Amino acid sequence: MSLLGCPIAGDVGLKLLLSPTSASVISRTACVAVGVAFPVYSTFKAIENHDEEEKEQWLMYWAVYGCFHVAEIFGDKLLFWFPYYHHAKLAFLIWLQLPVSNGARRCFRQLLEPFLLKHRNQFDSVVDGTRNELNKFVLSHQPELHLIKNAAQKLLTAARGVVSEQTTSTDHNHPTQGLDSIPCDADTFSDDEEI
């Protein structure tokens, strides 16, 4: 932990972040850590602590982040060519989260909320229509979904058995030991079995 506080570590980190050969990988990783991992944990803490102000802050962040991500997906091929794009994205994600800047709240209140209020009826009809179609699809494909569920459960059970046997086995010379117990005949995945 003392290494993180030392000026050498900061210099090395900054050089790695700005170096052309490693900048893309490191800045993309930093964007995921700052843009997703940290907010997921912070959202979890806000929910666990029943902190309404924190919940609102993170809900606004996720709304802004989601819109930004959708725009980024469509513009990715173009944005990729801009030098230091991921560095700018990282700075933007940090700005969204900083309590001093209150970036997510600003973006939400000034850009996203007016847009959503203006187009609320259209979005509601699309969401309701999509939900209805999904419900119809699920109801009309119950047998197939049940078959997939049974197959997945049996596969998971077999995998757990293999892992369990591997961890309790003292014989490390046979890494495939336990694979013979995986059911593989055609009757294994019949959909008339009870779960």
Describe this structure in words.
The structure is a single chain. It contains seven helices and no strands. It is mainly α. It folds into two domains: 115 residues, no CATH class; 49 residues. Helix 2 runs antiparallel to helix 3, helix 2 packs parallel to helix 4 and helix 3 crosses helix 5.
Rg from Cα: 25 Å
The ordered H/E elements are: HHHHHHH
**Secondary structure: helix percent:** over 70%
Note the total helix count.
7
The low-pLDDT segments are 185-189
Largest sheet, in brief, is: none
Total number of strands: 0
Family: Belongs to the DP1 family.
Biased composition (Polar residues): 166-179
Region (Disordered): 166-195
Main location: membrane
